[in-house]
Amino acid sequence: MKKPVIAIDGYSSTGKSSISKVIAEKLGLIHLDTGALYRGVTWFALQNCLEEKGTINLEVLFSSFDQIELEFKNDNGELILFLNHIDISKAIRSNEVSDNVSFVAKQKEVRDFLLQSQRSLAEKGGIIMDGRDIGTVVLPDADYKFFLTASIDERTKRRYHELLSLGIEADEQQVKENLIERDRIDSEREIAPLKQAEDAIVIDNTNLTKKETIEEILSHVKKI
Ligand code: C5P
């Protein structure tokens, strides 16, 4: 039997990736956190494409795509992103990357550059992919689509504790502002904005634990 393709979209820090990871383990799927791809390109841009005033030069970035080699290493179903053979999984969580990623991700050239690698990973089925435009653009024919949301205060708390657990310094107010700003840019952009697919099941997990959110998703996957 062909394994399912599951799309999980939603607002920042609704737990999409950590929830997807557990579901992948339970159902024997692979998991791709597509936010890591946009963060990876942003990390590259911050290293290689800065102008004197410290802003990202988009023309330089767009002409550097052929210098970016993306590889995925399968770690028990979890696809870990390597960029030019470097494991950037921790570096892409930095505040600097978070502050710039939505600006980079709204560029058509960047989205085009990353689209094909996402789609080709889903060709054989058996994948859960989380992001902002998976159910609407990347995998519109996914077998199951979910859209996660939660209150801004709850999401701030989760992201703040996640950063501390990664050993990254954080200020709660700044974390909140970053989430609001990213959601705004992600929702308002012209190409592949953050939005709920018409056929997605919406889950507000403000008052749900991670375990409860996973159970809710699994109950639908079993039902359909
Ligand atoms: O998922 P995460 O919060 O790490 O994503 C970081 C950023 O990457 C998002 O705020 C958004 O700008 C961008 N992104 C996107 N499309 C996706 C996944 C992430 O534009 N499918």
Automatic annotation (TrEMBL):
Keywords per UniProt: ATP-binding, Cytoplasm, Kinase, Nucleotide-binding, Transferase
UniProt keyword Heme, yes or no: no
GO annotation (BP), single: nucleobase-containing small molecule interconversion
Predominant cellular place of this UniProt entry's protein: cytoplasm
Top-level taxonomic group: Bacteria
Cross-referenced InterPro entries: Cytidylate_kin, Cytidylate_kinase_dom, P-loop_NTPase
GO cellular component: cytosol
Enzyme Commission designation: 2.7.4.25
Any Pfam family the entry gives: Cytidylate_kin
Protein name per the record: Cytidylate kinase
Species of the source: Chryseobacterium arachidis
Gene, per the UniProt record: cmk
